[in-house]
Amino acid sequence: xxxxxxxxxxxxxxxxxxxxxxxxxxxxxxxxxxxTPVVAGAVLSGAAPGGRLDKQVERLLGEIGAPRPEKSDSPxxxxxxxxxxxxxxxxxxxxxxxxxxxVKRVQTSGRVVVLGTPPAGLPARAAAAQRALxxxxxxxxxxxxxxxxxxxxxxxxxxxxxxxxxLRFLLSPRSAYVSGQxxxxxxxxxxTPAIDWSQPLDGKIALVTGASRGIGAAIATTxxxxxxxxxxxxxxxxxxxxAKVATELDAETIELDITxxxxxxQIADRLSGGVDIVVHNAGVTRxxxxxxxxxxxxxxxxxxxxxxxxRIDDELLERDLLRENGRIVCVSSMSGVAGNSGQTxxxxxxxxxxxxxxxxxxxxxxxxxTINAVAPGFIETQMTAAMPIPIREAGRRMNSxxxxxxxxxxxxxxxxxxxxxxTGVNGNVVRVCGQSLLGA
Length: 440
Ligand code: NAP
Prior knowledge:
The protein has helices at residues 4-9, 12-20, 54-63, 93-102, 124-144, 164-171, 214-225, 239-249, 263-270, 295-318, 334-338, 344-366, 382-385, 389-397, 407-418; strands at residues 43-47, 76-82, 106-116, 149-155, 181-185, 205-209, 229-234, 252-255, 275-280, 322-331, 370-376, 429-432. The protein is of the alpha/beta class. It has 2 domains: 39-185, Rossmann fold, CATH 3.40.50.720; 205-432, 3-Layer(aba) Sandwich (Rossmann fold). It has a 7-stranded parallel β-sheet with strand order 8-7-6-9-10-11-12, sandwiched between helices. It has a 5-stranded parallel β-sheet with strand order 1-2-3-4-5, with helices on both faces. Strand 2 (76-82), helix 4 and strand 3 form a beta-alpha-beta unit. NADP nicotinamide-adenine-dinucleotide phosphate binds next to helix 7 and helix 13.
């Protein structure tokens, strides 16, 4: 989809004029290209005294061949700061000591990752100090600019070894449009297998609903790139489009309306050999204010966006078809986080998806599987291209990246959740919204 504004302000005359008249200047975000390293530049790491993740960070940076900066003032592509040692508010000054001299060194489309300990269960002072990291990272994300993404990763004590897949994702161009997020990495739900990072989903079977176009087609393409075998589902009316995507990706198809009474049974029958990854992407909007909302408009949306997902999960779990180290990944929305005028039905359904993820995470962990959700913000698709221009422009600019995301940004986040190495990532809701100004 065309973002004319970005093209104009990034042209030579636009680059001259935009900063002088105070217009936002969206940076060109780097995205994952085949054969490129995890981080295309130097990485500087630091730690507050007493941190417990230095070994993991050092090992990972060695494994991915990330060079250290040559000089104390040379540019870096990423900063990683281990803040797990901070146990009191007086020690938060360690953030200032590390970031003040280094923040300007981060290159365009770079990365900042702060590592902490989940506050829940810590003594009060340590909990307050660790919770304070959220305010720091969210503010840094808003002030740093130049397409640089900033995240906080809480790593539970004892889960140090599980942080690798998350760090790889957050340091790489795969997380181009994810910023201002707080991610929790906990105990592994299953044994982490040895993994080929170039084909992490090799041998896995993934079901993707709503796969004939938009975000669903991007999810299918990305999971295929990572080695998964695909079963792609969409409504019978889109069978032609679905077949096109499936032919390109060597996938099987299911032409089915997921709200049909026997849909869960039909899907389970087709997956009778088991499934590793279930991506609930199919979704619709049926916008009206609640005062103008007829019941059928409310009900049909709720059926597609939430109730049918619950029934499909129930069927797959009841028939024990989700394999060990399996994944359920749901597609929620920023509307489900922040609410949106004219979208009471949509936001209700998407907040319900978040509730489903939170409620099912412990059960899935017992089954040695995980469930997580992405909550996209403004993504350049047919859906957003059809918005009136003022709403579309507001959606594009009102975030730390000053631009819309691409379907591949949602897909990359799902691929990270889906990775067999993300076995400590359970019950998370990660927004893919360029750190939208709306919502937490
Ligand atoms: P899209 O282009 O409309 O694709 C959704 C697909 O799901 C369509 O092919 C759609 O078919 C299918 N679908 C709808 N109802 C179905 C049903 N009952 N059974 C099976 N398939 C069904 O939408 P998108 O923009 O790619 O969005 C994908 C997901 O991301 C949705 O859950 C959406 O809510 C979420 N999302 C999108 C954005 C964004 O900015 N685009 C932002 C936040 C969240 P039909 O033609 O029949 O509808």
